[in-house]
Structures are given as structure tokens and as C-alpha cells.
Amino acid sequence: MSDVAEVVVEGAYEICNEPLQERYGLPQLESGEPCQLSICALGKCGGRELGFASDIELMFIYEGSGQTTGPEIITNNEYYLKLVEKFTKLIKARSEGIFQIDLRLRPYGQAGSLAVSAEAFQNYFSHGGAAWPYERQALVKLRPIAADENFGNTIVRLRDDIIYKGKPFDVAAMLAMREKQLQQLVKGGTINAKLGDGGLVDCEYLIQGLQITYGHRNPMLRTTNTLEGIHALKELGLISPDDFQNLQNAYIFLRRLIDALRMVRGNAKDLTVPPQDLEEFEFLARRLGYGSHTEKLQEEISSTMERVRDFSRLLDPIKALTIRTNG
Fold first, then answer.
1. Residue 101: pLDDT above 80?
2. What is the pTM of this model?
3. pLDDT tens, position by position, 43-92
4. Which of 19, 87, 198, 282 could serve as 309's disulfide partner, Cβ 3.0–4.6 Å?
5. Phi/psi of residue 131, each to 5°?
């Protein structure tokens, strides 16, 4: 599905860019060199992990300031804003919430520009910039997928310089964010496969925290794919073989559970696991291969999320490292 998304994004970019070039010419830097663009994926698309009803999270980054060559001359920023506006109107899913374009991870979110220069990207996400820790953490998943490949590689190197600096992962900021998610997005007394305590995001945040902390000296950790990240952590001896197997199994199970929930409901809006006594839970059990054995699925959900909660102990060395660094 990630391959499909990449083809759609590249095709939409080419369709939108051609008429803009005919009207405004080529964007150029102030030096007179061509101004390049990279369309970068984040989230599940960045990790090549798209599932049913996943969003396509993107960031449009252009090389720098300047203007177009005409016939009508506009600034590079104006050009790329027009490009993104056309792009977002062109891609329409047949069903709401499936392959929906999401640009909210760009600098300043919905209040920021739809297209951002490389300088603005660096200033915002660098330590000391305006980005929140969770925004900087999201860059672990950044992967160029369309427009200029060479400039995309430049953005990756820039990202590496920003997040793989040898500074420990901010565990306290992540835990505060998780607490807010649990309070605001998870209804009390329910099990949310993604955002609940022991859900998928706890797997992902743990792995990203280890990648950020140790990726400066271990380039193989700088992968955008979660399963590849788990394998790299094992190969480098940062997690034990038992933790590797349990973490991998938990991640795969929770991904399958979330995909099944989305298929049963036809959208990505509600990832709350239905009560075991409802017919919807029976549909879920059958789709996941449990047949009529709903109790086995319920036990697997409970035991998996309990194991994920136990993995939080892997962040303890990072907490200690953070204290020593701050001290």
C-alpha cells in the first residue's frame, strides 16, 4: 500500500507541476540555480507501513528563496504554495478517511505554510527551535518519496544532523504527551488498540526513543521502518533476544488488530476494541483467524498490551542518561 501511495503522490505532483511551469516558469534560487523540491513522507507512509485507511502524511520542502523565470514571475514560496494547493485538491479518496492527505506535521502545523524552505525546516526543528519534542521525534519517519531525489537526500542528511546528535531521547516529554493522549483521546473503561495504555504508539515511541538516543553512533538505527528498527536494536545488542521477539510479536499483532478494526468499521476514526459480548467482536475474531474463539482473542489483546507496558523499563537507562547529561 505504501508503494501505491508513492505512485499516487508522484503522479499528482507531475500533473500539478506541469501547468504551473507553463504559466510561471521554473523556480530559481537567488544564485540563478534551479530551486529543487522534495516531497517527504512521515508517519506510516514514511515507514513504508501503510495499512487500511491510513493517512498519507507529507511535508513539502523546497530549497530556498528566489523567483520563477516567467512568463509570469512569482516568488518560489508562492509557486510551491500553489503547487500544494493544487495537489491537495487533486487527490480524492473514494471513501472518507482512506489515503487522506495530512500536512499537519509541517512546521507550526495548521498555522504554518503549506510548503517550507529548507532553512525554515532546519530553524524550526533544530534544538533551540520552536518545535515541540514530539514534532522532532516524528522526523524519525521522514522519507523522501517524490520530486527531486538528490535534494531529498540532502533533507535526510539535515534531518540526521537534527535528531541523531547523541542527545538522549526526552522521555519526560514523551510520557507527558502520552498522558495527555490517554486523558483526551481514550474513553475511560475502553481498550484503544493504538492510543490506549500498552497500545501501538507505546511500541513505536519506545523504538523511536532508542533510535534517537543511539542513532548517532549506529547509522543502521536511522531507519524509518519500525520492524527494521527492532531488528537493528537486537543486532546492536541494545535489546535482548527475548525482548526482541516479544516486541516484534506485539507490534505485528497490534498492527493486525488495528487493520482488522478499520476493515470491520470501514474507516480509521475509531480504534476502540468492541466488548467481547458484541457481534462486532465476533466479526473481529473471525477476521483475525480466531474463528468463534472470541475468548482467545480477548486474552491475546490483554496479554499483548501488558507486555508492551512492561517494555517501558527499556527507557530507564535513557532516563538515567538524561539526568547525567542535564547534570
1. yes
2. 0.91
3. 999 999 998 878 899 999 999 999 999 899 999 999 999 999 999 999 88
4. 198
5. -65, 140
Using CA atoms, how far apart are residues 274 and 279, in angstroms rounded to an integer? 9
Give the contacts of 52 (CB within 8 A, at least 6 positions apart).
1, 98, 259, 262, 263, 268
What are 109-154's pLDDT values in tens digits? 888 999 999 999 999 999 889 999 999 999 999 999 999 999 999 9
Name the DSSP letter for residue 289.
T
**H or E element that contains 300:** helix 294-310
Please tell me the distance from the alpha carbon of residue 76 to that of residue 63, in angstroms, as a whole number.
Answer: 9
Q: Are residues 131 and 205 in the same domain?
A: no
Task: Please tell me the distance from the alpha carbon of residue 256 to that of residue 227, in angstroms, as a whole number.
Answer: 14
Using the structure block, give the residue that is written with the C-alpha cell 532508542: 210
Strands 115-117 and 56-62: parallel
Same domain membership, residue 23 and residue 49: yes
Judged against a pLDDT cut of 90, whether residue 192 lies above it is answered with yes
pLDDT value for 324: 52
Q: How far apart are the first and last CA of the chain?
A: 46
pLDDT computed for residue 128 by the predictor: 87
Q: What is the mean pLDDT of the chain?
A: 92
Same domain as 218, residue 289? yes
Max CA distance (Å), the chain: 68
- Partners of 39 in beta bridges: 60, 146
- Domain coverage including residue 95: 2-163
CA–CA–CA angle 135, 55, 221 (5° rounding): 50
The answer to whether the bond into 71 is cis (omega within 30° of 0) is yes
Neighbour tally for 214: CB within 10 Å = 19
Q: Which residue, of 124, 140, 163, is where some domain finishes?
A: 163
Residues 230, 306, single domain; the answer is yes
The domain that contains 113 carries what CATH number?
3.30.460.10
